[in-house]
Amino acid sequence: MNNYFAICPRGLEELLLDELRGVGAEDLRSTAGGVFFSGDWAVCYRANLESRIATRILWHIVKGPYEKEEDIYRLAVRQLWPNHFAVSCTMRVVTTGIKCPLKSLDFVTLRVKDAVCDRFREDLGERPNIDTRNPDVGIHVFLTDRECTLYLDTSGQPLWQRGFRKASVEAPLKENLAAGILKMTGWQPGMPLVDPMCGSGTFLLEAVQVALDRAPGLDRTFAFERLKRFAALEWANIRAAAEARVKTVDHLDIRGWDIDERAVRATRRNLQEAGFGNLVAVDRGDVLDIEPPADHGILLANPPYGERIGEQDELAAFYPELGSALKRRWAGWNCFFFTADLRLPKLVGLKPSRKTPLFNGPLECRLFEIRMVAGSNRKA
Prior knowledge:
- This protein is an alpha/beta fold and 380 residues long.
- The protein folds into two domains: 2-153, VC0802-like, CATH 3.30.2130.30; 175-214 and 249-371, Vaccinia Virus protein VP39 (Rossmann fold), CATH 3.40.50.150.
- It is built from ten helices and 14 strands.
- The strands form two sheets. Strands 2-3-1-4-7-6-5 form a seven-stranded mixed β-sheet. A seven-stranded mixed β-sheet has the order 10-9-8-11-12-14-13, with helices on one face.
- The longest helix is centred in the C-terminal third of the chain and has 21 residues, at 309-329.
- The N and C termini lie far apart (64 Å).
- Mean pLDDT is 93; it is low at 376-380.
């Protein structure tokens, strides 16, 4: 049984915990920004393949106390790194810390890299090469005020990189954050879903994968495939089972619009590249003029945040018009807006039934739920 830590966007920890329980993880415990869990290698493989919300899955190697950088070096040099990966693999060390008293995390990174290379030299007479851009193996160092934990990355490229999105527009949402937001709306396959400001189509792509019961990691590789403990046959069976359960459909009740023709083209291209081009209708349209495709459903949008003063003024003028359009056309729909602009509900003129704090990277945001009650707002 191994111990792991799954990283995720802040605010999605409990959703990730439920997801990991679903792939057989045990001893689950959430903390800010992730979930600790345990399981065998099959659980690790499934977590990487199936998780829509995790950013990466780290395998716990060792934890120990430290006071200075040399304590961390000694902890790292004692580990049997050549038992975990081949000297031919390239590697990178990443260091993060919370309340760490040391002056330089970069120096800690350097000392851990030295320790791993020294261990290889002592055991094998040669050392692995460093690749800071696209390494075969990632070693993660996490420091608290007094303890150091060393992990091996089992994911490689971040798990939000599904291998689909080729075209993007400005400030796209990461896929795992989009998946978590979609889950929070309560949307289920079969319910109408609309994104009237679809950007490069991230919400739409995530929804299609959920509707098809398609594991998000089917189109990519993982770092665990390069570790010495990798069980190729077990992994092939897990992957084959995931492929076998993917549903085949002709059409989904999922639609996207955007006022920007470039965004429409980007979304269509991304859906096409993923093989979903015929399942989702995407058109150019202004959220203020769009007619709902059904009398109820989920509307989900990530409107612009307006980081500059001029944009803030434009949004202040836009929000009341959005409120009028929602009242006029979208009665019966549950509308969700993910934004860092906390003025949205007040300026839209509609009271949210829920405000969920989430983080888009370092940016604090809210997911506002606005329920448009059927019959009460529609004009005769």
